[in-house]
Recover the amino acids of this structure.
């Protein structure tokens, strides 16, 4: 009886881990206002938390390929945007990641953040930055 129960529990845990979609990897960001490709962000795990940094900027003007975050107000002030950690301290909660922050290097603002992989398409990531009840959600696409 114990063996059957152990087997059932192991099978359930395996099924849950298969269904949980990971945000880990490289994602192409899309500007939610212009619809243009904006950057490639790598999301990775550090300890128990998830972080993300900008690997490259897309569609930049010549001479403006690697700008500084002059509007940032924290430790990222006047740092290169390429290589910058814009997602910090995200924690996984079932199918979503939350309780962390995301920084918009264009305006230097830091927002609370939630992320989740689209249920219908695991190559689509929804990233929501919010302050109180005001939020913006971007759709990012998996880079193979």
């Amino acid at each position: 009886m114990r063996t059957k129960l152990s087997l059932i529990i192991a099978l359930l845990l395996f099924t849950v881990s298969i269904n949980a979609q990971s945000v880990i990897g490289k994602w192409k960001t899309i500007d939610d206002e212009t619809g243009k490709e904006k950057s490639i962000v790598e999301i990775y795990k550090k300890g128990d938390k998830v972080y993300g940094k900008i690997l490259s900027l897309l569609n930049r003007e010549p001479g403006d390929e690697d700008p500084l975050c002059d509007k940032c107000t924290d430790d990222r002030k006047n740092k290169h945007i390429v290589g910058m950690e814009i997602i910090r301290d995200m924690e996984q909660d079932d199918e979503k990641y939350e309780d962390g922050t995301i920084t918009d290097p264009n305006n230097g603002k830091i927002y609370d953040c939630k992320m989740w992989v689209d249920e219908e398409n695991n190559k689509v990531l929804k990233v929501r930055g919010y302050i109180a009840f005001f939020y913006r959600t971007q759709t990012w696409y998996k880079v193979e």
Remarks:
- Residues 5-19 have pLDDT under 50 and may be disordered.
- The helical segments are 2-19.
- The chain has one helix and eight strands.
- The beta strands are 25-30, 37-46, 49-57, 85-93, 96-104, 109-117, 124-131, 134-142.
